[in-house]
Amino acid sequence: MVRIFVENLGMRNSGLIKGMWFDLPVSFQTIAEKIGLNEQYEEYIITDYEAPFPIGEFDSIDKLNQMTEELDELPTYIEAYVKQLIEEYYGSFEELLNDWENIIFVEGVTNDKLYGQYIIDEGYFNVPSELEFYIDYESLGRDWRINGNILYVDDGMFIIVG
Predict the structure, then answer these.
(1) What is the reported pLDDT for 118?
(2) Its pTM surpasses 0.85
(3) Of the candidates 120, 122, 116, 118, the residue with the CA atom closest to the CA atom of residue 146
(4) 15 falls in which pLDDT band (50, 70, 90)?
């Protein structure tokens, strides 16, 4: 869910604060009616928000509505971690939207040791069962993480391909 707190900028500059929270998507007309935008007070400012992507004070309501709809179209495993993916690998929400199909989610792999086990279990290396005891799964997972684009989250791991 994306929410924004929008204020009437003209009233705010006059010392009056008229604003409210809106769940997106919402029409500009609804916002204008609720915060008193008119011919005298035409401008708004977004002074707070709850969203997994950054929102600027003067962002377009139409643009924010579109971004919210695009967020809702992402797979739930990506939608839940949009903020972390942007912070770690993508410069913006738009970059993430353009590349989300190159993101693989592996449930249950949350650290280097589990990643090392995953590498062996998925057959990236053919290891005879009598030698598995000697494998340092944590070091293997760490080395592959360092050389790849891996992000551990609470319930799994993202692999950013490419």
Answers:
(1) 96
(2) no
(3) 116
(4) low
Query: What's the mean pLDDT when you consider all of the chain?
Result: 92
Which residues on neighbouring strands pair with residue 105, listed in sequence order? Answer: 158
Rounded CA separation 80/155 (Å): 11
Q: Which neighbouring-strand residues pair with 103?
A: 160
Three-state helix/strand/coil letters over the chain: CCEEEEEEHHHHHCCCCCEEEEECCCCHHHHHHHHCCCCCCCCEEEEEEECCCCCCCCCCHHHHHHHHHHHHHCCHHHHCCHHHHHHHCCCCHHHHHHHHHHEEEEECCCCHHHHHHHHHHCCCCCCCHHHHHHCCHHHHHHHHHHCCCEEEECCEEEEECC
